[in-house]
């Protein structure tokens, strides 16, 4: 062999060996979509020093599941992945890729933490490391704050408004300061007793709407953290804050003693600057700040609107060139230990959508009415010609009266009107800042009379807590799609920092019952886990005021009436349970467990022989109540029956939660309690022999609660089911349910196999039904099944919101059963794809959700006698797929006759359903219909 040949042979051997080795060790694609805790991506000012970590596996044919993972966490980017100084989980054999607890070195306020992760797939092949993600903690302890609460005493010259409540003048506050050298980085930590808008050197620090939002301020005020490194420079700087009452000192808090009786709003801020020379400089709110109430925003109230006088504008007051020598010195308060200052734990409200599809409805008598064609929540942006000194009046309404004027009776005492006083002739632009309205129509008056109103004068800025869409639902039926639209608008409109009952009248409060029924539907449609868990913290804090475990009707509790309602307070057990089912995050169950137990204690304290005697709003707003007017609001399902049913149900859920948390004694104790309550329930309210209600009125909801909460013996239950069907038949296949019965109606009928009946009820066009409001022109869900009718006009009761989400709870069934996409094991670890098509009404339906493991979807279609089902199952999950037509023999999978493979296995097959177990991937199932 010549030298060159020998060289070539050796070279080829080495190259081939390398090739083989590299094949064996081929790295899987890196994990992606890294988040911490309830879904945060690289958050700034994070609230939790013990976060959890989640990631998703890539969608490729090589990766079906995870067999192990490794997380590395470090105090700087450079240390990753090899020298993680904070935590190295080391390789953990586990298929868990969500909510892994951090178990490293204790973290501190302000700390910036970097992390990345890799996984091993089902064959033991390791992946590449993910991108490096980070989180930065906010100020976690009150002792981190050197600042003081600062503001002007606006209580002393405040105005008496509706119901003699105080209305504070908004204030402008500012502080100039000098920086000696160049800035490396800067963080602004800020909050308010009130709501604020902050500027640095003339620039907006953020586009947050009405921060810090609403918590039980007597327990906790949330703080915001902003990276302001780019907004500060060496030399003179100025920090400028506009401050208004918001929830804290506004009428909405009803002058509550716990909220310091309309105390003057104050801000708290701490600007921490790191200079390029390594030194630090901190600017705090203290008595060197100056303020004025002579700014242009004269009044601002959540319920009543805003008054803005452009003649009082103070050009450049947020910049260094402004002279504040006429401003007055502020007053200060020290921070107290009793009110915790904690970084905001969910997204602030933002302007999410601009509606400019506006119609000019009428223009007469110098008044113009505009239609946004959608009931929204937020503020308008007006661009209107005006004459100097004139006042533009902006009114709102959800719908019009027959004569084309505004229906505002349902705003009750909320004035919901904005005023703008012009300082010049010409076009003015105005967007209110410290209020929000619920409206579809807007009326302008006071504009330049020589101008012809145009639709382009107004836009609608839809505002809500800044969460993203999480799911989609669509079908072949226009009205069902409109219902989905009404549900999702109703949700966005009512998630303004807290879950509200309605967004427009003098209420807008965190009613627990409404939230309890809507949270699963909300979670399907929006990525709002952190929103709910934040509100649950407020609930825990509020419950701590009550030794007997009472959960008030609303959170934050501005009513302070020491009262609780069954079906409402149960939100403290039901919401965590539902969220766990959809996220798989056990820490949520831990966090809320004691609260749930105490709530059961409350029931026990009210119960005699397991029948609680307590308040209940009952099956709120049931249609056709036997009592008239306001009296009828509570429907006909007896209060005691509802109390007992929820007592039993919550005890049952707590027992299940105890089981999941490994608390065996509690699991047994609460199961026994549930059984005892169920027994008492059946004896008290049911005729055992006939399974019929013994109560005065036989309502659908009585049967639904008894059946869905599993409170009857199997024989009684069977009979009760027949009675339920009879009540529905008697109502000509209409629902007869209020807030509590409606969400469980589809679930019960579904369990009974009464799918066609449920479709009939859902697709009813006449009152009471979901489509009835759509037929009357609704673009959101209504508070009442008959809030309005074209024939009879508005329901005469002033409690008549046209934007109330409770009846939107049907949304869950639309996802889970019409389209067929549900979580079968917590957090979609196992998915159930089980559509139940009804060909009388639909030819197709589809839904998708961003599950914790990635996108999952189910989409079916019936055409030319063929049923097709397209399914996406994300990695690290599996799915039980139920094909509702055809047989195993005529089933095609991805174009081929069905035979079992490693990806699809047969679970069972009968003449109705073929059940399969499918591994992650994309599938097309086809069968004869
Ligand atoms: C109304 C609210 C809410 C309901 C309570 C009982 O005032 O709007 O929807 O939960 O009453």
UniProtKB/TrEMBL annotation:
Transmembrane segments: none annotated. GO terms for molecular function: alpha-L-rhamnosidase activity. Its EC number is 3.2.1.40. One of its GO terms (biological process) is carbohydrate metabolic process. This is alpha-L-rhamnosidase. Residues 820-892 form the Alpha-L-rhamnosidase C-terminal domain. Residues 364-461 form the Alpha-L-rhamnosidase concanavalin-like domain. It holds the Pfam family Bac_rhamnosid_C. It catalyses: Hydrolysis of terminal non-reducing alpha-L-rhamnose residues in alpha-L-rhamnosides. It comes from Seonamhaeicola aphaedonensis. Residues 468-818 form the Alpha-L-rhamnosidase six-hairpin glycosidase domain. Residues 182-350 form the Bacterial alpha-L-rhamnosidase N-terminal domain. It is an enzyme of class 3 (hydrolase). Residues 1-24 form the signal peptide.
């Amino acid at each position: 062999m010549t030298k060159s040949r020998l060289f070539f042979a050796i070279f080829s051997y080495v190259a081939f060996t390398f090739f083989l080795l590299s094949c064996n060790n081929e790295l899987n694609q890196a994990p992606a979509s890294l988040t911490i805790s309830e879904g945060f991506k690289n958050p700034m000012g994070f609230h939790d020093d013990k976060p959890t970590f989640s990631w998703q596996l890539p969608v490729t044919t090589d990766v079906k599941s995870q067999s192990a993972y490794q997380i590395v966490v470090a105090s700087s980017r450079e240390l990753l992945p090899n020298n993680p100084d904070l935590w190295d989980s080391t390789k953990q054999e586990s298929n868990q890729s969500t909510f892994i607890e951090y178990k490293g070195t204790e973290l501190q306020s302000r700390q910036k933490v970097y992390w990345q992760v890799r996984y091993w797939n089902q064959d033991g092949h390791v992946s590449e490391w993910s991108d490096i993600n980070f989180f930065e903690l906010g100020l976690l302890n009150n002792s981190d704050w050197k600042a003081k609460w600062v503001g002007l005493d606006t209580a002393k010259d405040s105005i008496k408004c509706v119901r003699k409540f105080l209305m504070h003048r908004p204030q402008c506050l500012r502080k100039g300061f000098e920086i000696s050298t160049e800035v490396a980085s800067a963080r602004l930590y800020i909050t308010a007793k009130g709501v604020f808008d902050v500027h640095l050197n003339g620039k907006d620090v953020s586009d947050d709407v009405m921060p810090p939002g609403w918590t039980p301020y007597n327990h906790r005020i949330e703080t915001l953290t902003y990276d302001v490194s780019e907004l500060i420079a060496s030399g003179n700087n100025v920090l400028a804050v506009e401050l208004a009452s918001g929830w804290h000192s506004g009428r909405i808090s009803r002058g509550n003693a716990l909220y310091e009786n309309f105390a003057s709003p104050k801000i708290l801020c701490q600007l921490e600057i790191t200079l390029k020379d390594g030194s630090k400089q901190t600017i705090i709110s203290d008595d060197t700040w100056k303020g004025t109430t002579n700014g242009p925003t004269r009044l601002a109230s959540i319920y009543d609107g805003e008054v803005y006088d452009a003649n009082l504008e103070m050009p450049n007051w947020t910049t260094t060139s402004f002279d504040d020598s006429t401003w007055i010195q502020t007053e200060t308060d020290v921070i107290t230990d009793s009110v915790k200052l904690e970084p905001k734990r969910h997204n602030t409200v933002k302007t999410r959508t601009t509606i400019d599809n506006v119609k000019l409805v009428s223009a007469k008598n110098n008044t113009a009415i505009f239609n946004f064609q959608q009931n929204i929540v937020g503020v308008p942006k007006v661009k209107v010609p005006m004459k100097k000194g004139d006042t533009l009046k902006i009114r709102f309404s959800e719908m019009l009266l027959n004569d084309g004027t505004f229906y505002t009776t349902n705003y009750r005492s909320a004035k919901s009107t904005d005023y703008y006083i012009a300082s010049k002739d010409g076009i003015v632009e105005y967007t209110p800042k410290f209020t929000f309205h619920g409206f579809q129509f807007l009326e302008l008056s006071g504009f330049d009379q020589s101008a012809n109103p145009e639709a382009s004068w107004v836009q609608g800025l839809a505002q809500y807590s800044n969460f993203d869409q999480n799911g989609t639902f669509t079908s072949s039926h226009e009205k069902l799609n409109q219902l989905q639209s009404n549900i999702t608008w109703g949700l966005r409109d009512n998630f303004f920092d807290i879950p509200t009952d309605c967004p427009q009248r003098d209420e807008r409060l965190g009613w627990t019952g409404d939230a309890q029924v809507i949270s699963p539907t909300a979670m399907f449609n929006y990525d709002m886990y952190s929103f709910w868990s934040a509100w649950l913290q407020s609930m825990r804090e509020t419950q701590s005021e009550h030794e007997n475990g009472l959960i008030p009707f609303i959170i934050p509790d501005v009513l302070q009436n020491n009262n609780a309602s069954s079906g409402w307070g149960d939100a403290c057990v039901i919401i965590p349970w539902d969220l766990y089912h959809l996220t798989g995050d056990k820490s949520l169950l831990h966090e809320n467990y004691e609260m749930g137990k105490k709530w059961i204690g409350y029931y026990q304290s009210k119960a005699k022989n397991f029948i609680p005697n307590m308040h209940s709003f009952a099956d709120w707003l049931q249609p056709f109540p036997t009592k008239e007017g306001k009296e009828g609001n509570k429907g006909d399902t007896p209060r005691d029956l509802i109390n007992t049913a929820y007592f039993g149900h919550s005890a049952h859920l707590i027992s299940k939660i105890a089981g999941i948390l490994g608390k065996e004694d509690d699991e047994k104790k609460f199961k026994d309690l549930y059984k005892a309550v169920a027994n008492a329930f059946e004896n008290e309210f049911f005729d055992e022999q006939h399974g019929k209600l013994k109560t005065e009125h036989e309502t659908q909801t009585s049967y639904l609660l008894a059946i869905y909460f599993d409170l009857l013996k199997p024989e009684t239950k069977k009979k009760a089911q027949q009675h339920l069907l009879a009540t529905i038949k008697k109502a000509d296949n209409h629902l007869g349910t209020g807030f509590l019965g409606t969400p469980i109606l589809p679930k019960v009928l579904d369990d009974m196999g009464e799918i066609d009946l449920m479709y009939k009820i859902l697709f009813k066009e006449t009152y009471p039904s979901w489509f009835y409001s759509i037929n009357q022109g609704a673009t959101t869900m209504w508070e009442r099944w008959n809030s309005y009718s074209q024939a009879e006009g508005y329901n005469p009761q002033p409690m008549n919101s046209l934007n109330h989400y409770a009846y939107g709870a049907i949304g869950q069934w639309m996802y889970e059963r019409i389209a067929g996409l549900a979580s079968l094991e917590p957090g979609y670890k196992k998915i159930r794809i089980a559509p139940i098509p009804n060909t009388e009404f639909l030819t197709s339906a589809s839904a998708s959700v961003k599950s914790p493991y990635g996108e999952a979807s189910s989409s079916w279609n019936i055409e030319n006698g063929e049923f097709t089902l397209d399914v996406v199952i994300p990695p690290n999950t599996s799915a039980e797929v139920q094909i509702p037509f055809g047989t195993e023999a005529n089933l095609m999978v991805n174009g081929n006759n069905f035979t079992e493979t490693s990806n699809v296995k047969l679970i069972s097959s009968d003449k109705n359903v073929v059940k399969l177990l499918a591994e992650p991937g994309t599938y097309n199932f086809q069968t004869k219909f």
